[in-house]
């Protein structure tokens, strides 16, 4: 499939509106096309990139952000996979009406296709003491959920990690291409917050926390 074809198919709604009496919990999630892994170069071989990767990371590292773990429930296609999850710094709220959030994921991610197949996800916002939990979900190929306690999120069943300050349960609403990443938009179907505790922050490659 060419780039034009991918761009034409990647943005899609995952479910019909349904009847007014249908409860969200009664509708089965639909999967989304995870896309093949393309040649990610956006600059031609004979064209110099305006900004080098090292400079890009160094400058953007000055922007402090929160840290989340994006999770999805086990697949139902008999592949034997357990729940999926990865540490994600690039998360943001997007819209109040309708309630939408967004996260970005690399198009080379091995976790994203499993989330795409599930059609749903839960954003677990990490607290200041959960740096090690974040590191465990940042490792590729490991059993990320080993020793991690969690419960099913109320609507989608995605893993809601214990002791997180806040969580946001979502259905995948749309997916857009963004260079070597995908921009995933989720429609919020449930959410909750503990209402206390400092957030885990990430700045210049290190974890931090708010100071009084």
Number of domains: 1
User: In the CATH hierarchy, what is the class?
Assistant: Mainly Beta
The CATH superfamily bears the name: Electron Transport, Fmn-binding Protein, Chain A
Gyration radius from CA atoms, angstroms:
18 Å
The CATH architecture comes to Roll
**Helix content bin:** 10-25%
Order of helices and strands: HHEEEEEHEHEEEEEE
Main sheet strand line-up: 3-2-6-9-10-5-4
Count every helix, treating DSSP H or I runs of 4 or more residues as helices: 4
CATH fold topology: Pnp Oxidase, Chain A
Unreliable runs, pLDDT <50, ≥5 residues? 1-26
Structural class: alpha+beta
The biggest beta sheet reads: 7 strands, antiparallel
Mean pLDDT: 80
Number of DSSP E strands: 12
Terminal-residue CA separation: 53 Å
Residue share in β-strands: 25-35%
Described by the principal axes of the CA atoms, the overall outline is globular
Description:
- There is one protein chain.
- With 212 residues, this protein is an alpha+beta fold.
- It has one domain (56-208): Electron Transport, Fmn-binding Protein, Chain A (Pnp Oxidase, Chain A).
- The chain contains four helices and twelve strands; from the N terminus they run ααβββββαβαββββββ.
- The strands form three sheets. Strands 3-2-6-9-10-5-4 form a seven-stranded antiparallel β-sheet, sandwiched between helices. A three-stranded antiparallel β-sheet has the order 1-11-12, with no helix packed on it. A two-stranded antiparallel sheet has the order 7-8.
- Strand 11 (201-203) and strand 12 form a beta hairpin.
- It is globular and about 50 Å long.
- The termini are far apart.
- Mean pLDDT is 80; it is low at 1-26.
